[in-house]
Amino acid sequence: MKDLIHGLKAGDSRAFEQLVQEFGDRVHRYVARLAGLEGAEDLTQEVFLRVYRSIGSFDPSGGLAPWIFTIATHLSVDQLRRRKARPEAPPPANSSGDPVEARELRETLLEAVAQLPEEQRRVFHLREEAGLSFREIAQVLRCPPGTALWRMHAAMTRLRNALKAHMEK
Amino acid sequence: MGCERFSSARVQAAYGESPDDPSWAEHGPDCYHCISEVGEMRELRGLYEAGSRRNLNRRSKARIVSALKRASKVRRLRAAAVAAVIFLGATLAVPGTRAEPGPTAAIPTAVAVDQGVNEVRDRVGKLEVDMEPPRPYVDAALDDLARRIRLLAWDTENENM
């Protein structure tokens, strides 16, 4: 990771490739969930440009991933604010050929995720889409790790209840 | 059920992290409630992961890398331009002019101006950067700077006459 940071500071093109390879999908999935799929690629690019331009002020003691996702969170929130809209409920995908029940269950889950309170939804996406540990999530959200875990537990409880309610129908 | 205090530990267990609570190791594996909740959370994760994963395609990644390279070139070029201006200033302030040494910097001759500008041009040219649209800009800025200095030298000469 030190090499990557050094390479970014030096403007090494291999470092850019490594950065995008390592974090591209995760950042894209995260900003798409937070700010909506429309414009997510441009937003992802903006995140990486911001990372590059600010790398001089990066404090390595905090870890690169939490720092990148802090930037991603801020830019996503800014974009949402500009659009004054809630993030879209992600459309179901890759579901062709699945049994109808499984597809419906998955759709119910995605809808329930989209309806989580913002703080819980953010923790959920930082874990599921960004792949951060709960300690890293706490860094991004500037809260104690216990708070991040508590929010995740609350989110999981809601989601499990939503699935149970769907199955009881 | 006495399991409330382990809610965070159950989340960590469901995500494969080592729970922070040391007593989880004694409680978790033997508690039906905790085991079933961890299992349900893992199932939920599996269901979520089986859904849509909106990854970037190869072209999009290449586009982002290109944007980063462009940003890097612009940054290097800006730094080079600043260095060039500093170098030009220093070059023009060195002795080798017609004026007698005095308390203020001497106005350089036209030859000195041209030498300084050419030196800067060479140095900018040696930079390993794609100069396409910025190079003409740097050249134009240098030409303008040289023109201004020559005018300054001309004014000074006329004042002295």
Q: What's the helix and strand layout?
A:
The complex is a heterodimer of chains A (169) and B (161).
Chain A: H1 2-10, H2 13-35, H3 40-54, H4 64-83, H5 100-114, H6 118-128, H7 134-141, H8 145-168
Helix pairs in contact in A: 1-2, 2-3, 2-4, 3-4, 4-7, 5-8, 6-8, 7-8
Chain B: H1 7-14, H2 24-27, H3 32-49, H4 58-93, H5 110-126, H6 134-160
Structure description:
The complex is a heterodimer of chains A (169) and B (161). Chain A is mainly alpha-helical and 169 residues long. Chain A has two domains: 1-88, Orthogonal Bundle (Rna Polymerase Sigma Factor, Chain: A), CATH 1.10.1740.10; 97-169, Arc Repressor Mutant, subunit A (Orthogonal Bundle). Helices cover 74% and strands 0% of the residues of chain A. Chain A contains eight helices and no strands. Chain A has helices spanning 2-10, 13-35, 40-54, 64-83, 100-114, 118-128, 134-141, 145-168. The radius of gyration of chain A is 17 Å and the shape is elongated. The N and C termini of chain A lie far apart (50 Å). The mean pLDDT of chain A is 89. Chain B is mainly alpha-helical and 161 residues long. Chain B has two domains: 4-49, no CATH class; 65-160, no CATH class. In chain B, 68% of the residues lie in helices and 0% in strands. Chain B is built from six helices and no strands. In chain B, helix 1 crosses helix 3 (32-49), helix 4 packs antiparallel against helix 5 and helix 5 packs antiparallel against helix 6 (134-160). The mean pLDDT of chain B is 76. Chain A binds chain B through residues 11, 13, 16-17, 19-21, 24-25, 28-29, 32, 37, 40-41, 44-45, 48-49, 52-53, 90-95, 102, 105-106, 109-110, 113, 127-128, 133-134, 145-146, 149-150, 152-153, 156, 159-160, 163, and chain B through 7-8, 10-12, 14-15, 17, 20, 40-41, 44-45, 47-56, 60-61, 63-65, 67-69, 71-73, 75-76.
